[in-house]
Amino acid sequence: MSSDEIIHGLMYIGATVQSISRDSYLVGFKGKNFMLNITDSGSHGYLGPEWAGQRATVKTLDDAIRVINCNGCGCE
User: Fold this and answer.
1) Which strands, in side-by-side order, build the sheet including 24-29?
2) What is the pLDDT of residues 5-54, one digit of tens each?
3) Is the CB of residue 27 less than 8 Å from the CB of residue 59?
4) Dihedral of alpha carbons 66, 9, 19, 29, sign
5) How many CB atoms sit inside 10 A of residue 10's CB?
6) Three-class SS of residue 23?
7) Which residues pair with 25 in a beta bridge?
8) Contact 56, 34 (CB under 8 A)
């Protein structure tokens, strides 16, 4: 799944998405912010392992939805 597909899927369920770097995105959803690295290579993107805050690496839209805790909200 491409990063564009994941981003469009997140926007479809009401999230806002801002690119930080090539693979790293700031995602806002229901009053919370999430740092997502969208990649199929397993890299940490711009927010490497030294990042002390929340971040998650996702490969699919389902992964991203799980991170933003959307499961069960009826938007799937």
Assistant:
1) 16-19, 24-29, 32-38, 56-58
2) 999 999 999 999 999 888 889 999 999 999 999 887 656 556 666 777 78
3) no
4) negative
5) 26
6) coil
7) 19, 36
8) yes
Distance between CA 25 and CA 27 in Å, rounded? 6
Map out the domains of the chain as residue ranges: 3-67
Burial of 2 (0-12, 13-18, 19+ CB in 10 A): exposed
Separation CA 58–CA 31 (nearest Å) = 21
Q: Which amino acid, one-letter code, is at 56?
A: A
Token readout for 24 is 């790293």
Structure token pair of residue 51: 């990042």
